[in-house]
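Q: Here's a chain of 169 amino acids. Please give me its 3D structure as tokens.
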Amino acid sequence: MKFAKLAILATALAATPIAASAADVQAGATVYGPEGNPVGTIESVANGQAVLDTGKHKVPLGLASFGEGETGPTITVTKVQLNQMMDQQVAAAAAKRDAALLVGASVVSADGQSAGMVKEINDETDAVVVEREAGLVTLKREHFAVDGSGALMALFTLAQIDGATVSNQ
């Protein structure tokens, strides 16, 4: 999901004016939109990306997405526009997840290993029971996503899933 967010945001932010210097794009800096209003605060910077906290979403943006303004780093969208884009991305990802989250669906772990099969889904509690050779593990609907190949993926490594699995014996 993070890559999909970045692709759409990169397109929206492609018209960034003057590139901000690396010193401007640092944790704690306030980022401003095209109208000069605050969009959010940079939470962290690593590996060519900054995480911008809008108060509603934590948005990963490439450092090239930032421009330099009189008051600090800027981006070419307002806070409202950025939150709307993220709302759309979150809704689209949830729809894909829900379409793939079916009884009998195979589940892979976040580290790409087979994690079992969906045995039961409780819509009232959002509990999802995954059957594994070693037993059962119950996760929440929010603990699943669809990976880049369309597979249903638990957002935990196999070791983490193993630690939560209740033995059939």
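Q: Can you summarize the key feature?
A: The helical segments are 2-12, 79-100, 158-164.
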